[in-house]
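Worked example 3 (structure in, sequence out).
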């Protein structure tokens, strides 16, 4: 099912370049900090240095996802990533259970 703006129902590949374009920032982005931020809000299936796969199932979820990408604040994201990736109690939060494997990988980066 087509959800518009290049999204389909199911797994969507989001490139790092696409994120930079949406945010109108062509320069540096701390990719791991950005992913750490995103796993709080969406189901991330997998990631690499060039993009990530995210589960989007409705137009409302697509809009929510886009707003979170636009709303990301690099300086806050980097601080939160540096602090929380060393915090073991963060992993015990059931809210992030769906992304636990991704969080574990990001903690090692």
């Amino acid at each position: 099912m087509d959800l518009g703006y290049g999204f389909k129902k199911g797994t969507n590949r989001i490139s790092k370049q696409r994120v930079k374009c949406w945010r109108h920032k062509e320069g540096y982005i701390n990719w791991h900090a950005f992913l750490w931020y995103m796993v709080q809000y969406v189901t991330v299936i997998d990631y690499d240095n060039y993009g990530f796969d995210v589960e989007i199932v409705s137009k409302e979820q697509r809009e929510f996802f886009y707003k979170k990408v636009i709303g990301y604040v690099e300086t806050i994201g980097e601080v939160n990533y540096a602090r929380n990736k060393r915090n073991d109690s963060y992993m015990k939060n059931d809210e992030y259970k769906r992304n636990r494997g991704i969080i574990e990988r990001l903690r090692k980066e």
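Notes: The mean pLDDT is 86. The chain has six helices and five strands.
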